[in-house]
Amino acid sequence: MDYKTSAASAAGADDSARRRFLKLASTAAAASVLPVGVGAAAPATPGYDVVVVGGGFAGVTAARELAHRGARVLLLEARNRLGGRTFHANFGERKVELGGTWIHYTQPHVWAEVMRYGMEIAETPGVAHPDRVLWMSGGKVLEIPVMENWALLEDALKRFHAEAGEVFERPFMAGLSAAGRKLDHLSIADRMAAIEMSPAQRDLMNAMMATNCHGPIASGAYTEMLRWWSLVDGDAARLLYSCARYKLKDGTSTLIERMAEDGGFDVRLSTAVAELSQDAAGVSLVTEADERISARFAVVAVPVNTAGQIEFSPPLRPGKTAMAKEHHAGKGHKLYLKVKGRLETLIFFAPETELFTMVFTDQPGEDGGVLVAFGPPVDGRVDLNDPKAVEPFVRRFLPHLAVEQVLGYDWGLDPYSRGTWCTLRPGQFGKHLEDLRAREGRVFFAGADIATGWRGFIDGAIESGLQVGQAVAAELRGRA
User: How does pLDDT run across 67-88, given as a tens digit for each residue?
Assistant: First the structure.
């Protein structure tokens, strides 16, 4: 893809931010190329049963499932790599994940893929076994023993999610129950305001919730957090572990490459779709390079924030077009910080008014190490690429540390994501999700953003790809 042209059109991006984004995008993409044979250009001839638009985990899963059932499949990816919102880059002597990273055995679809392909698992020490937990409240850094801290957080989490059982009787529900619809207008902030907590406990809870929704807590729907809670059976430790404990030892790219190799379908990289039309005979796609591709069916597996970049004929359902304009709440940042000084295995929190809401050790060391930091959008107030701009925050918790290097990726500037993981805003669950998941004639839709379970996670992407792959395969059998 032409990052320079596409990123320059991203709304609100200043020139310096664009230049940094372009440099990182090209560097990271070079580290994430496909193995020989997977990314070879497919022949420019008609005759495909299915064209899949989008090469993230959802698109690759759907393509693999269909190819395994004998379908002739072509996958089109706008970027010059597979993986979507997951990919890695070099950071010093290590590879780090700049997008989706963590998996867990509470996430059945991705865990099954890990078992299928024999992938090795690694742990994130700051989440798995923290020796210290600190948090900021009222401008002061607080610390109590680790287990006392978890008890404080668990108490707030259980009271916050008290209605989860009524709203989600079972995880992986496809829609929102009647009880959920009554609550869907509430934001996380609305629910927080209704819970009695001490100021210190409230700031700790604010940090956790702002990290989960990856934005201000007023922007994320309360029902989204109830769904997360139901997926971990109301267990506070399991919630944290499910989000940030286990990861693939050799990176997420190794899993998606194995899946693509296993599928054996045709792939075209750097091929963005501009138009998609359909009639009774099939679907027709036009790329940004004005190439025309036809097939019997299409699977569109792109983030909901980007669906408006493709012109559909006939037009999409109102929920799809509304989400393309409204966007979901996931707009924050994720950074890796290389620090100098003794780095313990720890985790610290701060409310959403601060630069970061959750920071934890990725690599401890006596003379230095690496931290992972999450925070809400900064809207240009701080240069997140400048180590000295982020160092004051870190030193409020750990005064002896110096930040030497910073690495992040601006998913908001990336024209093929326009945001991070999907957290729906108040009202979007009930209003739009049914439309977002619905097929439209010969066009099916997949993606982490519209999953029923771990929405926004790698697991949700695979779940959605599996479901859509089955649905399209059934259509092909019925029309054979």
Answer: 999 999 999 999 999 999 999 9
